Amino acid sequence: MATFKGFAMKRLNEIGWVEKEVPECGPMDAIIKPTCVSPCTSDIHTVWEGAIGDRRDMILGHEAVGEVVEVGSMVKKFKPGDRVIVPAITPDWDDEAAQRGFPSQTTEPLGGWKFSNFKDGVFGERFHVNMADANLTFIPDGLSDEGACMLTDMWSTGMMGSENANIPLGGTVLVIGIGAVGLSAIAGAKCLGAGRLFAAGTRPISVEVAKKYGATDIINYKNGPIDEQVRELTDGAGVDSVVIAGGNLENTWAEAIKSAKAGGTVSNVNYLSGADNVLIPRVEWGCGMSNINITNGLCPGGAVRMERLADLALCGRQDPELLVTHKFKGLEKIEDALLLMKDKPKDLIKPVVMLDID
Ligand code: NDP
Ligand code: ZN
């Protein structure tokens, strides 16, 4: 195969099919053919909100599992035919930022996020993975392709949101936004020992999965400010930890800060777009002295992260497949799946596209 087809952002607000040359496989790298891919809300921010600026004919998508078709001469763990989980974030593990403990930020801010940002993504018949031994993981027996695909970004990001939220054992937690990312934060918060767990969102299917993942209370943000509802439900106390996984720049940050106890943590994983500044309410933030810490981060990538998430699923702690609500078949359906992700009907959490490529 000299060239292959992929589904791309042609420019801002325009998507379509492109034909590209199969990328070269460097000595430490691999070429993969995907067997299952899923669109992300971040693809929507990228194409229709210009969140990372313009991109021309860039193949979209960063959530995939697949089969190895080629490996470089220095790759030790993998060979053609292996079935692998491909993390959405594929850091350069020899970079200085990785050595400082921030692999997702290698080479430049957000630099670990390569697919559908700095290079072609996974919505094509082939894609390239850097540092295959450090970034790929075998799909373990007992995990389906679609379940494994949910680990690559949704579980990794959402669970990081909860890891960054300093949840005390038995502590109270609020997760704002219960799309696939917020639901994964709930799944993570439960694993990390959350006590009472508030989930803010309205899509009925998300509410159902939030309860299955461990939410104890559902808050409908359309019924009034989230912080007021949280304060009422906690006799005025507020919560120890807040994860922001949805919402907007006008209200959400204020609601998060106002929901947190002094000394609590607000952990953001939302991909901010739509305004240039984040507004923090000065008084409720204790004039900057409340000890309410704000944390944030880009999805963690790499082989070890994926292995650990796969173990959580295999040990029955949580079920990643609960996030998959729509299943398409065939490469040409990638467009439908992406547009579904853009429209967000009430019965949607995540669509996947199952592929059978030669
Ligand atoms: P969804 O759009 O599926 O979910 C968003 C959630 O926010 C929904 O539950 C929605 O409610 C809720 N919401 C909407 N408006 C409000 C509001 N005013 N107040 C409170 N909640 C509100 O998104 P995803 O779960 O797919 O992704 C969440 C975010 O995470 C996105 O911005 C995405 O780009 C980002 N992301 C970040 C990554 C990272 O590395 N940090 C990686 C991957 C994604 P309703 O139920 O009513 O629809
Ligand atoms: Zn994503």
TrEMBL record:
<dbReference type="InterPro" id="IPR011032">
    <property type="entry name" value="GroES-like_sf"/>
</dbReference>
<keyword id="KW-0560">Oxidoreductase</keyword>
<keyword id="KW-0479">Metal-binding</keyword>
<dbReference type="GO" id="GO:0030554">
    <property type="term" value="F:adenyl nucleotide binding"/>
</dbReference>
<dbReference type="InterPro" id="IPR036291">
    <property type="entry name" value="NAD(P)-bd_dom_sf"/>
</dbReference>
<dbReference type="GO" id="GO:0043168">
    <property type="term" value="F:anion binding"/>
</dbReference>
<dbReference type="GO" id="GO:0016616">
    <property type="term" value="F:oxidoreductase activity, acting on the CH-OH group of donors, NAD or NADP as acceptor"/>
</dbReference>
<protein>
    <submittedName>
        <fullName>NADP-dependent alcohol dehydrogenase Adh3</fullName>
        <ecNumber>1.1.1.306</ecNumber>
    </submittedName>
</protein>
<feature type="domain" description="Alcohol dehydrogenase-like C-terminal">
    <location>
        <begin position="180"/>
        <end position="276"/>
    </location>
</feature>
<dbReference type="InterPro" id="IPR013154">
    <property type="entry name" value="ADH-like_N"/>
</dbReference>
<keyword id="KW-0862">Zinc</keyword>
<dbReference type="Pfam" id="PF00107">
    <property type="entry name" value="ADH_zinc_N"/>
</dbReference>
<feature type="domain" description="Alcohol dehydrogenase-like N-terminal">
    <location>
        <begin position="27"/>
        <end position="130"/>
    </location>
</feature>
<comment type="similarity">
    <text>Belongs to the zinc-containing alcohol dehydrogenase family.</text>
</comment>
<dbReference type="Pfam" id="PF08240">
    <property type="entry name" value="ADH_N"/>
</dbReference>
<dbReference type="GO" id="GO:0050607">
    <property type="term" value="F:mycothiol-dependent formaldehyde dehydrogenase activity"/>
</dbReference>
<dbReference type="InterPro" id="IPR013149">
    <property type="entry name" value="ADH-like_C"/>
</dbReference>
<dbReference type="GO" id="GO:0044281">
    <property type="term" value="P:small molecule metabolic process"/>
</dbReference>
<dbReference type="InterPro" id="IPR002328">
    <property type="entry name" value="ADH_Zn_CS"/>
</dbReference>
<dbReference type="GO" id="GO:0008270">
    <property type="term" value="F:zinc ion binding"/>
</dbReference>
